[in-house]
Amino acid sequence: MNQPPALPANITVLERGWLSSNNILLHGATPEEGAVLVDTGYAAHVGQTLALVAAALRPRENVRLIANTHLHSDHCGGNRAVAERYQCSILIPPGEFSAVEHWDESALSYQVTGQQCERFSPTGKLMPGQTLRQAGREWQIHSAPGHDPNSVILFEPETGTLISADALWERGFGIIFPELDGHDAFTEVRATLDIIEALRPRIVIPGHGAPFHAVQAALITARERLQYFQREPGRHALHAAKALTVFHMLEIRQSSMEDLKEWLLRIPILISVWQRFFGDEPISEWATQLVRDLVQAGALRQQSTTISVRET
Ligand SMILES: [Zn+2]
Question: φ and ψ at 17, to 5 degrees?
């Protein structure tokens, strides 16, 4: 492994696992300016998030603002608690503003994915084309649809720092959720990768995993992965179903095989994956095989009828 790259001044990355996204603190130039916190992790990790943020803030510094790249549960699950602790405002991408304001569960992703998110109140929008000023630098806000139709990414040109959320990781990108419902989003993923390339970032802080410098290599990997998924959309859907199942297990840690299967059979997005790609097989057999595959791959552990997840 290469050494993780040094970050520009005034940035702290709280690297998390998979259940919580990374949290990024953009410190103020002075303690009085206050810090911006980009993304707040998953609801089940909120105690850990509060402790990590408190420890990373500088003396006399507060969080003045939460900025969410997108509203998946692993990126905004700590919003409510952090906003309560620091009495700070919350900016979110514009696409889901009204759904969040009214907490419209059917329009937000939590019900369909079987994930939790505590209700919070956004105070403003992160408008693509505008900038967010912090510590004397202007962070550009860019649309980054694909993984999520409403996602934004943040780019600071002086230091060449990109906060890429789940649009680009060192080895790939997040699940392309709209594809699971039958909406074409592969082309959006491609366009977003092109936008990232055109920005010529020198360092990328992804939503998951360590910051990295090797942007061209990451773009090559991402485009190869995208091509593979475009040729084989069923593979993407199966990968997504497995990732969502592991995410659920990371949250609950342990389950009986029966309960896990029962969960799989009632989560709308998993039912949609089965219907669209695997519907010629009974859903219960499909679910059993999916869990078996995850056990075989080492992502889950089975001891008699108990399924558990490895510590991460
Ligand atoms: Zn996401």
Answer: -90, -130
Q: Ligand 1: distance of its center to the CA of 71 in Å?
A: 7
Torsion of Cα atoms, 27 then 31 then 33 then 38, to 10°: 30
Q: What is the DSSP letter of 232?
A: -
pLDDT in tens, 225-265: 999 999 999 999 999 999 999 999 999 999 999 999 999 99
83 CA distance to ligand 1 middle (Å):
21
The alpha carbon of 193 and the centre of ligand 1 are apart by a number of angstroms equal to: 16
Q: Where are the domains of the chain?
A: 11-231, 239-309
DSSP 73: H
Residue 293 to residues 66, 177, 269, 288, Cα–Cα distance (Å): 38, 21, 19, 9
Predicted confidence (pLDDT) per residue in 134-177, tens digit: 999 999 999 999 999 999 999 999 999 999 999 999 999 999 99
CATH 1.20.58 fits 239-309, yes or no: no
CB-based burial, 194-231: b 16+ in 10 Å, e otherwise: ebbeebebebbbbbbbbbbbebeebbebbeebbeebbe
| Strand-pair partners of 75 | none
Q: Per CATH, which fold does 11-231 belong to?
A: Metallo-beta-lactamase; Chain A (3.60.15)
